[in-house]
Every structure is written in structure tokens, then in C-alpha cells.
Amino acid sequence: MxxxxxxxxxxVREARVLMGRERARGRGRIAAAATEGSxxxxxxxxxxxxxxxxxxxxxxxxxxxxxxxxxxxxxFASTARASTAAAVPVSLPPAIxxxxxxxxxxxxxxxxxxxxxxxxxxxxxxxxxxxxxxxxPTARLMFVGEAPGRDEDAQGLPFVGRAxxxxxxxxxxxxxxxxxxxxxxxxxxxxxxxxxxxxxxVERCRxxxxxxxxxxxxALVCALGLSAAQALLQTxxxxxxxxxxxxxxxxxxLIPTYHPAALLRNPxxxxxxxxxxxxxxxxxxxxxxxxxxxxxxx
Length: 298
Ligand code: URA
Known about the structure:
The protein has helices at residues 2-24, 108-116, 150-155, 162-173, 199-216, 226-233, 239-242, 260-265, 270-288, and strands at residues 67-68, 77-78, 141-145, 182-185, 220-224, 247-249, 252-257. It is of the alpha/beta class. It has a single domain (1-298), classed as Uracil-DNA Glycosylase, subunit E (3-Layer(aba) Sandwich).
């Protein structure tokens, strides 16, 4: 018990050091892409090629008092610290309306219905059922994963297995409830043996995801894992080069982070994922103009 507590305190200490470094590096700058879906660094990563900020939009995220939720993204403690987030004027990239396609259903239930009978790729012959979304249609935050796994294929809902349980903790760690966010995947059908989606499967399924985004109109998209980040940003870049930055997808800020399954395999990645999630939380707050409460006892 004492040993576990010691370990936890050590992680907290390290996290504070890392956060201090991040602050010093002036993290939080978001640069809008000149072209939709293009990848733009936020200026927080020296190794990244920073594209010009086409819109002149910048966000200084500041750092509200942290909820330390590293080990399993459980909430452990809040530290009182004044935030600068509310004081900084926010200038987001202009939202380029991602208009829904007229050749697809213009409401989510009808789109889900269409997806349920989709036979555009061979995954239709191995799926139990399609997995469309779980679902607050008015969510400000959308998580996009890779594809249904076994549990999701069986239940018809995304992220209900072990990775889903960790995703629930990640959502709670940023003070949201699962019912308040929109969760979906790049693919709507399970690839056999949970293999990585094939490029043609991604392309066949892409219109459904794009239509979901166009209809939900989230304020922010969080891409869970490489498949989602690559599919949305239409890039072959590595996770290492994508995470830690804020991109725009058709005018919507997009933050890539590690897939919960990757965090289960490699808990050492949780520290970076937590940094990404705090960015998600802070950006959502800034966009809503919400001032983080002093002491952050929310
Ligand atoms: N992994 C995903 O990418 N999506 C799910 O729905 C479940 C696991």
C-alpha cells in the first residue's frame, strides 16, 4: 500500500515537472490549416513542421488547475491554482461549415439505418451487426476510434469492451460523462481478428463518418489512435508526430491521442494521453468561454 502510494506520488511529481516544461514551451497554440483536414502543428513540438496559421487564429490554453488522473484516469486530486485560461482572448479558426452530403441521409437515425444494411465492403459478410455510435447527438466533443472489436460487434455499440472502460475513465477525467459525448469509429463493421482497417475499407466507410461529423457538428474531435487520426487528417504520419498537436478538420479543432487499447498495452503512454486530454478539456472550456472555477472543485 505504502509502495503504491509512493509510486503514485512519484508519478504526480513527474507529471508536474512535465507540465511545467510544457507551460514553459508555450504550449496551447493552435494553428489553423490552410486547407481542410491538413495537419498543422501547434507550436508545442519543436520537431514538428509548423505550417503558417492561415486564419491567424491562436489559442493560449493556459493551464487550469489540474485534476490529476494519471494512473487509470481516475480522479485522484484537484490542486487549487489560478487559471489564465479565461483571461486570454480566444480566436478560433473560422468554422468552415462541413455541410452534410445531400446524397446521404440528413439525420442521424436515418444514416444509422442506412449503415446497418451497408454492403460496400467485404466486412459486411463477417460482421454480426454494424456499430454506428453511442450517442449524444448534441455533443460538443466527438471521439473517433478505429473499428468495432468483438464486444462492440456483439452489442452494436462502440467502445464497450476493456478499451471502452478505459475510455469512460478518460472521459470522466476531463469532467464529462459518456452520455455527453459522441463516440463512433472510422469503420462501422468489425475487421476479422481486429486487424487494422484496410485502406479500401476506410474509403468505403469514410462518407458515413464525414456525414456523422457534419450532422453532429461537434466543437472538437478527438481522434483515438493512429487509424482515426490518419483517416481524418488524410495522412500517413506516425502517432509520435501527430500527437501533442491540435489540427483542424474542416474548421473543427482535432486533437489526436493514443487509442485506449494502446494505453492498456502500454500504460507508460498514459502520461502523454493525459496531456492530450487536458488540451481537449481546456480547448472545450475556452470555446464555451467558461472560466474554470477557482480551485477547480467541479
Ligand atoms: N476499439 C475501437 O477503435 N473502437 C471500438 O469501438 C472498440 C475498440
